[in-house]
């Protein structure tokens, strides 16, 4: 015993304890003599504990107490390894689940916008970054053209081009098209991992893993990140989630390093997608919420101030953004909150160094100066906003704030199907069972409420609003729904597994209770004998009562964990597993979407590429401009960029006009071929006939002689026998239904509209059909040459000149075939 106290070594120890003073040893021995009961069979371990707690210095004792046990550290390490492998499997799942289009069909780019991005990426990898910034494309928006480097978000193309360069550096010879096809599945795995990091900062590892696996399979995100969907959202969603993660990480740690990384992530988001304005408005709203609710801290300042300064400076470097980063109303909220947080930070700093009386005087001065500065800033902002007809807001932003704005003033925005408000069933189709778990996740974030959880709540609220205005923004709502559902499922798993463990341990305790009953009786008898021997005073009794009452009060105030019956817990776990199976099966059905439209269009674009001159101009509605330029390599009049409303209105007016007037419009634009998409044979509902009213509205917004009521019968859009003469004589009707009666034996039944067409037999005078695909999906017409009409005019003029001789006039009028 004395050897142990003097710093000896136990058989299992590897190092001696530090030396102690002799006085400390004597005092320790006296203490042990007054407490002989503690010298039991566990004397060595108990003495070692007393030696460390009493004799070692306080710093060393504290360090020994906080050192984790080997079992806990091993458990922590094994948990990290398990989480790493689960994340790896989630990444593989997110990547592989998006390859069904490639497995079922082939490695091909689909949709409309991805073809333009693929064409830009080809130019970037072939000519370099410098030529990319200065690229003037003369094959789009004829005769205006387009400066590609200054009108496109370069994040997607730069990312894919960098991936292609890296792969070729390691001698992996993949084509540019293959890299573009698989960019979206790769970044879907990155987005799942970023979701794990974000949710982990809010509610822990379990919630993060659950949210990551949900995002990997959510239908709304799959539709935008499937293989071949080479669009901006493929990398933008990852940038959005990763920017939010770095903001929360900076908010939790107060690290300037993470704040700088957050600015760079925001810069990547600005390069990738115009939806970066959602970030630069959501984060200031959260900062203002924290200030109003009294949760200001230096960590909040570090998380926000560098983002505004560095993020705005780097955003201005993107050519498509430029000075819009400081001149448009979408960014003014961040600057206003930036001023407010500096005023609040100054107030807190002054409060810390001044007395209460002096602080009141200084606070009055600061508030007055701050109000003057804010009024000056607001006056400048009002002056800048008032000078703009749209009050400094873009058309898409105004349509988000006022859902009726686009349909009233900018029909080109309202004509896009992605800009329409969603229906209620679309929420279930896009996020499936997560719609029922989101409210539970919101409730779980309030217990306890932190800065990170308040940000996630604000994120879900704002994304729900914007997704209700524009169906395209369901893509922004999906990560928030996955985060909330992950938190809800994680808390539910904790409660259910805790309940099962509780009952399992309880049954184990009952089995071992019989073996431990003798030991408990002996210890109780010993305690009774000690109480009888000792005769404590009244003061000792009071102290003992106080010591007994304190833990009782603490145990009453402590919250007991929720424990459910074991039957309910098992049933709930099985129900969650069934919901997960249904979720996976539903998403598998969503992946089975057909790419038949692409293959039907390939036939037409191949014909254009092989049977027309390289400088021929092709007119179509703007939806097909990107595909025509990329797949057929022909010059188009309008495309999906929609930057010139007048040019699009010109094409819409031509489609809405009679054949002769349309020929004159197209001929003035040097158009040789006109392409229309028709789905009346195969049942394709997104054809040009269903889009025709938008052509009328857009054309009528610029050219007043085009009026929408002229194409409606009693306010209804009809193509049958009740259709108006203006509708039946329009170029779009004739190009779509020319020779349509030959497909079904003369009936002329339109499968999409569900009726027989009104005008079945007619001929074209100024256009001629040159190609129609096998399924009548795409039809191409050629403008008849102008010389036929000029020849008739010259004969007329000759007949007028020779009117002096009556005999010649008679012969000429008889031989003239154009009368």
Describe this structure in words.
With 819 residues, the chain is mainly alpha-helical. Helix content is 66%, strand content 4%. It is built from 38 helices and nine strands. A five-stranded mixed sheet has the order 4-3-5-9-8, sandwiched between helices. Helix 7 packs across helix 31 and helix 14 runs antiparallel to helix 17.
- Enumerate the strands of the largest sheet in spatial order, edge to edge or round the barrel: 4-3-5-9-8
Major sheet, described briefly? 5 strands, mixed
The Cα radius of gyration reads 38 Å
Strand content: under 5%
* Number of beta-strand segments: 9
Mean pLDDT: 79
SS content category: mainly alpha
| Shape label | globular
Helix content: 55-70%
Poorly predicted tracts of residues: 1-26, 28-66, 531-541, 548-558, 588-594, 792-797, 799-819
- In whole angstroms, the N-to-C terminal distance is 131 Å
Protein name: dolichyl-diphosphooligosaccharide--protein glycotransferase
Enzyme class: transferase
Membrane topology: Multi-pass membrane protein
EC number: 2.4.99.18
């Amino acid at each position: 015993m004395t050897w142990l106290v003097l710093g000896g070594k136990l058989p299992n120890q590897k190092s001696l304890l530090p030396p102690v003073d002799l006085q400390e040893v004597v005092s320790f021995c006296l203490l042990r003599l007054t407490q002989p009961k503690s010298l039991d069979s566990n004397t060595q371990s108990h003495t070692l504990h007393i030696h460390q707690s009493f004799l070692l210095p306080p710093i060393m004792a504290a360090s020994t107490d906080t050192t984790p046990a080997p079992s806990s550290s091993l458990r922590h390490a094994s948990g990290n390894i398990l989480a790493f492998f689960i994340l790896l499997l989630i990444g593989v799942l997110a990547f592989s689940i998006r390859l069904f289009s490639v497995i079922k069909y082939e490695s091909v780019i689909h949709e409309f916008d991805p073809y333009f991005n693929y064409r830009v990426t080809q130019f970037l990898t072939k000519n370099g970054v410098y030529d990319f910034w200065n690229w003037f494309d003369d094959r789009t928006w004829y005769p205006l053209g387009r400066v590609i480097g200054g009108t496109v978000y370069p994040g997607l193309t730069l990312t894919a081009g960098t991936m292609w360069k890296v792969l070729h550096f390691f001698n992996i010879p993949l084509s540019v098209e293959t890299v573009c096809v698989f960019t979206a599945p790769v970044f879907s795995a990155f987005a799942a991992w970023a979701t794990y990091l974000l949710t982990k900062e809010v509610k822990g590892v379990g919630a993060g893993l659950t949210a990551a696996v949900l995002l990997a399979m959510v239908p709304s995100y799959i539709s935008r990140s499937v293989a071949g969907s080479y669009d901006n959202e493929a990398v933008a969603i990852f940038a959005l989630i990763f920017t939010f993660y770095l903001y929360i990480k900076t908010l939790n740690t107060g690290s300037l390093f993470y704040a700088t990384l957050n600015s760079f992530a925001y810069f990547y988001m600005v390069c990738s997608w115009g939806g970066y304005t959602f970030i630069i408005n959501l984060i200031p709203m959260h900062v203002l919420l924290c200030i109003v609710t009294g949760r200001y801290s230096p960590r909040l300042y570090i998380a926000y101030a560098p983002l505004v300064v560095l993020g705005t400076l780097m955003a201005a470097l993107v050519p498509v953004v430029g000075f819009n980063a400081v001149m448009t109303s979408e960014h003014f909220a961040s600057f206003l909150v930036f001023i407010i947080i500096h005023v609040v930070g100054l107030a807190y700093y002054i409060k810390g160094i001044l007395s209460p009386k002096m602080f009141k005087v200084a606070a009055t001065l600061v508030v007055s100066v701050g109000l003057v500065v804010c009024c000056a800033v607001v006056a400048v902002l009002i002056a800048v906003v008032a000078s703009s007809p749209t009050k400094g807001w873009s058309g898409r932003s105004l349509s988000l704030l006022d859902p009726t704005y686009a349909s009233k003033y900018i029909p080109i925005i309202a004509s896009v199907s992605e800009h329409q408000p969603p229906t209620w069933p679309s929420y279930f189709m896009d996020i499936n069972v997560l719609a029922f778990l989101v409210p539970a996740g919101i409730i779980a974030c309030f217990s306890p409420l932190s800065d990170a959880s308040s940000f996630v709540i604000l994120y879900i609220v704002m994304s729900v609003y914007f997704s209700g205005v524009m169906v395209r923004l369901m893509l922004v709502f999906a990560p928030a729904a996955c985060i909330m559902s992950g938190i809800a499922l994680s808390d539910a798993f904790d409660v259910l597994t805790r309940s099962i463990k509780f009952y399992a341990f309880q049954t184990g305790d009952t089995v071992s209770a019989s073996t431990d009953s003798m030991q408990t009786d002996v210890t109780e008898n010993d305690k009774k004998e000690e109480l009888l021997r000792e005769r404590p005073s009244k003061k000792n009794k009071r102290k003992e009562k106080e010591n007994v009452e304190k833990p009782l009060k603490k145990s009453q105030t402590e919250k007991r964990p929720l424990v459910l019956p074991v039957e309910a817990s098992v049933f709930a776990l099985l129900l969650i597993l069934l919901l997960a199976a249904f979720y996976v099966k539903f998403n598998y059905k969503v992946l089975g979407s057909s790419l038949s439209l692409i293959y039907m269009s390939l036939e037409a674009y191949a014909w254009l590429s092989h049977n027309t001159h390289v400088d021929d101009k092709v007119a179509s509605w703007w939806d097909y401009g990107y595909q025509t330029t990329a797949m057929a390599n022909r010059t188009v009049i309008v495309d999906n960029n929609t930057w010139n409303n007048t040019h699009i209105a010109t094409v819409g007016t031509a489609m809405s006009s009679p054949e002769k007037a349309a020929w004159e419009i197209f001929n003035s634009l040097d158009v040789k071929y006109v392409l229309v998409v028709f789905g009346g044979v195969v049942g394709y509902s997104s054809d040009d006939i269903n889009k025709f009213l938008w052509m009328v509205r857009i054309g009528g917004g610029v050219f007043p002689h085009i009026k929408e009521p002229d194409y409606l019968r009693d306010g209804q859009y009809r193509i049958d026998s009740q259709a108006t003469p203006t509708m039946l004589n329009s170029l779009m009707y004739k190009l779509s239904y020319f020779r349509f009666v030959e497909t079904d034996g003369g009936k002329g039944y339109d499968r999409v509209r569900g009726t027989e067409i009104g005008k079945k037999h007619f001929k074209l005078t100024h256009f001629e059909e040159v190609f129609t695909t096998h399924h009548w999906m795409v039809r191409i017409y050629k403008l008849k040459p102008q010389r036929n009409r000029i020849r008739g005019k010259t004969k007329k003029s000759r007949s007028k000149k020779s009117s002096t001789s009556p005999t010649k006039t008679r012969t000429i009028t008889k031989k003239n075939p154009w009368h």
